[in-house]
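Spend some time on this chain, tokens included, and walk me through the fold:

. . .
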Amino acid sequence: MLRIGQDLVDAMVAHARADHPDEACGVIAGPEGSDRPQRFIPMVNAERSPTFYRFDSGEQLKVWREMGRLDEDPVVVYHSHTATEAYPSRTDISYAGEPQAHYVLISTRDADTTEIRSYRIVDGAVTEEPIDIHPADPRS
């Protein structure tokens, strides 16, 4: 189960809506070895595409080094789908390289509603998991 603050969900959705019609992408870092998403890190979709995303390699290197320096892990890896449901594509599955991460997909295909779903992707196997959205912690 992904347990995540409403503020982080709102940030992912806002990023996905802002980048629409292109796919948005990013990560949410948390303390190393934990399962607590805390630090929202929107990233650039190097493809600038409505059907595909790819982290910019230079930006990804910088972000992963910063997480290492801060003793953080990528707890959530997120991206949006602009015309399809929030389910990982074959490409998404093949690129899933963080087995401990929650892969969150946000569908922006409908202007009036937003579909958000979370998955574990390990060795090509996709398992949907529930999302527990809690109020933002005022101390964070």
